[in-house]
């Protein structure tokens, strides 16, 4: 976070810099197997050399904006690098901000899923590190060999002549399910100096626009990101809160042709606003519970289930509790379904208006009676590029990453609290599904197979 009056020129031996009062800090971590130990207390008062190993050093410079990875540079040995990420460093490095001096939030660096960055070089910096060959965000990087290459305050040459752009399409669709709308995007072409070889993969980030309308600023909140590997990748979709204004950020590999696109949301609330919907198995019964925050002209709720992908069937109808179908109070509904099926069962709620119009809720899934409490991915293999993931029935928040066999991130979902999600638009091939518990860092990995269509 850049603060007013903070100049990007510092002495790391300055006590004021070390205590954070000038907007920066110096922290030292030591890798301890699968995590990190803070050893800042061991830093000498007069530190002259960060790179004290002497046998070829690894350089990692990362830029985070509001705790979200924005750009980076890596130079080092091939064993440190994997595509554009700094593996095999342990995944989660906690960064704690001194809030006595500035308001930035704490965040975590996950080296296993950093995403696209400006430059990744496989050569260790055994001399004097790396330097840009030209000024500007499009400058290439070269390994330096002696102090002649280090000229602080002197231009290396301008990269300002580069021109190019991404051609993109964006569409916001209202009320695609109760309480939610969707944003669909597609990168359709590149032009000028922008190329598929140099600027892909492109990470597409979605922010809720809570700051100055239409501008990406510090008040905006990052929610999701996905990756496009090629211009030919199919369009992709984000699911958002029903009426949120959003900003899409197209982040290119080099950082040369990034694009920010604001979308104003004109969606109106649905007649019924669901607060929650859960399905929980208790032996041979499944408890369905849903809450509504508001109801307008509501007749009631048809409860539907799908056992083992055999098709949806209505199992009961629950009348609305709202007087004359209208309420602005929190209303709670529940239904117990006798269900001893041995496989996955899906449930959904069809909300029916007084005029007989209907809308479907999100889908919830439960395991079969006696089925082991592990994460289940189905169908797997899949023939249409769509899978449902049913998590262990624990009240934790998860981050979900889908990667291809080269380690490239295809899909990334954060702060998932539902017990199941759907992932679609997967191309034929084999993928790795990584699930990380946000609080503990505990990980599980499964394979997904998508058959040729």
Question: What does this entry look like structurally?
Answer:
Helix content is about 0%, strand content about 45%. The chain has about 450 residues and is mainly beta. It has 4 domains: about 15-125, no CATH class; about 165-265, Immunoglobulins (Immunoglobulin-like); about 285-365, Immunoglobulins (Immunoglobulin-like); about 375-450, Immunoglobulin-like. β22 and β23 form a beta hairpin. The chain is elongated and about 75 Å long. The chain starts with 14 loop residues before the first helix and ends with a strand. The model is unreliable at about 80-85 (pLDDT under 50).
Strand order of the largest sheet: 16-15-12-13-28-27-30-31
Q: Strand percentage, roughly?
A: 35-45%
The residue-averaged pLDDT reads 81
Multimeric organization? single chain
Number of strands: 31
Estimate percent helicity: under 10%
Largest sheet: 8 strands, antiparallel
SS element count, helices: 2
What is the first-to-last residue Cα distance?
47 Å
Q: How many independent structural domains?
A: 4
Structural class: mainly beta
Query: Ranges with pLDDT <50 over ≥5 residues?
Result: 81-87
Any idea what the shape is? elongated
